[in-house]
User: What shape does this take?
Amino acid sequence: MRGWVLPCVLALAAGCATAKTVPQEAPPSPSVDATFEEFEEFSQGAKERPFDPLIGYNRFMFKVNDKFYLYVVKPLAKGYGFLVPEPARVAVDRAYANLYFPVRFINCTMQAKLKGSATELGRFVVNSTLGVGGFFDPARRWFGWEPCEEDFGQTLAVYGMGEGFPIVLPLLGQTNLRDGIAMAPRVLVNPVTYLAGSEANLAVTSGERFNYLSLHIEEYESMKRDALDPYTFMRDAYKQNRDKRIKE
Assistant: This one.
């Protein structure tokens, strides 16, 4: 979201430039995770193609991002995964998710999802204390408090803003005009923006994305492998997934 390299690589796989999913207590399964399974389901059922006036540019940038992922990001993430045990990476993933609590809390409140706001506040207090800064998730394990996954793109949609058209951003990957605009307020409510200088900010956010990618290293290629046209597959899957999350 700030023109970085490593902070942005996750979007190449997930196609989503919005809030990050809070990780589960148990280590992730090596199979395709829920987000990518949703993408596959939606893409198979999609009947309408989105308006795509930038399709020439989008296809070109998709290929650039794809090569960067395959030849730079993936080898580095595999090396990191080899050096750092999976349980440690899962714990770090939870800590990062806890750190970005303000994004979820503010968007739940702006959408009048007060139960979600209360749950997010409770999760943050419990996981920051009993969960040792978020490295563990007792809020989910002991109290059954599931995260409320809301982001600024969803909030803009609730307030009536249309999605615009698809855009593939350098390194950031698949998004649309509305979700691209929504990146700006997320930066403003990101606590790392105010608690650290630019270099520390880059290191913290890069670590978040890189650590997450190391836990889901094969999922992007698993999706792409069976697609006749990888770009339109990712584009349509992204749209369907966002539409579903906005309606929830």
